[in-house]
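hey so i finally got around to running both of the ones u sent me last week. sorry it took forever, my laptop kept dying halfway thru and i had to restart like 3 times lol. anyway pasting them below in the order u listed, first the sequence line then the structure token line for each. didnt double check formatting much so if smth looks off just lmk and ill redo it

first one:
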Amino acid sequence: MQILPPALQKVIDSLGTLPGVGPRTAERYAYYLFKSDTMNSKRIADSLINLHDSISYCSKTFALIPADKELSDLYIDPSRNKKLVAVVAEPFDIVALEKTRLYHGTYHVLGGLISPIDGISPDQLHIQALMTRIDEDEVEELILATNASVEGESTALYIQSQIVNKNVKISRLARGLSVGVDLEYADQITLGRALEDRTSL
């Protein structure tokens, strides 16, 4: 016997696939959407339908961009220093660094971190594209802005080993960031200090 209407159960099941959303939370979200204004649910549905068709990746930096563009505004902006590149794991790490208003270089998104236990190897990340960028943009400094985790440190060390023969300064965000904290959730003051006090490797 089915307790809930199939349409509501389908929404609960769909919401339950999101990270950090358990069965009870999914039920609360679904019931809230059912009780709220119909237009609110339609706006959410429309935004999800258009999500994949409206977003793409920058061909240089792998940052998120509108689908009708090829390059990120942060990359083509003439006021940004292309010789300074902050290497981050995910696109939303860019948002965190931009909020500090202290960084004026460009970015390179790896698309994850090296994690053998999760089956993520270096060749699955945008590391080779980074090597190409170093040559094409005549990069002078790489800021390895990966998370202060085992995976973040492993990835930073791997990148460092790959550019040992290139004339590039390598720096790492200072330890203002707590171990295990993702950049996305770091407060702006801590992140700003970590950026200003980055250390050479």
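and the second one:
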Amino acid sequence: MPSAYGRDLDLNLLRVFAVVAETGSVTAAARRLYLTQPAVSAALRRLTAVVGAPLFARSGRGLVLTSRGGRLRAGLQPHLQPIIDAALDPPTFDPKTSERVLRIGFADSPELWLLPRLLSVLEREAPRMRVVSVPVQFRTVATALASGLDAAITVADELPSNIRRLPLHTDGFTCLYDARHARLRTLTEKEYFARAHVIVSYNGDLRGIVEDALHKTRIVRCSVSSFAHVGALIEGTAMLATIPNLVADQIRAVRPHLKKKPLPFTLQTSALELLWPVATDDDGICGFVRAKIVESARQPRNAR
């Protein structure tokens, strides 16, 4: 800490000094500060002791600044009012003019379907605001939020108490395939496991959500770390991909040859959640963006 604190410089003394210097009177300063006259006089004595020189001199029934007091006031004036304003004035936020850069963590799936919706909303309502998308998943989201993310959208397990969470929705999985090459009338569990698959694995191995949930092994032709390129990988092949419904819809919008089939078994899925640090509860900009994330997530499936 600065050495001045070790010399017992209470910053409240500077506020008392500033008001006495403005009014030229201990009595008037006491009224303005809602203090007693003895309290104001005691504050001036303490400040004089810290500074090591007289700050005021008597002039008739009032006080005038000494040369040392004048230098202190000149150095104090540019800083005291901004400090008071920062402490007492409520922050103002206009989404139309805000140039805030927000760091938001996205799991792979919501980045594909939710981020475009959010950007469309911000383009209309906060056109100068910018978003940095940071990849997160359930194993890394707590650390990422602690490292400075403003919010995150992912599936999560247990989290520290200083992270708030709000469920957005629960979306099931579907089987995506190229109907020109993988001809599926009814997809049975036997045929599903007989086919070759593209899977998404965050562990960088050959296990995906089906292996973890059903403890059965698929014929994995390719394992990737993201849903982003699944459509390109299965198009023109007979391979299958098991992906979230919303991601499948996003892919099919640009690859209409791909089709969906219900899975021949049930996969238990966790709710996608909006997560944010408790410390940003009173941040108006973060609150605005959280509201827009919720609004975007609850739009109709094909909305932008």
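quick thing i noticed on the 2nd:
The first helix runs from residue 3 to 6.
anyway thats it, ttyl
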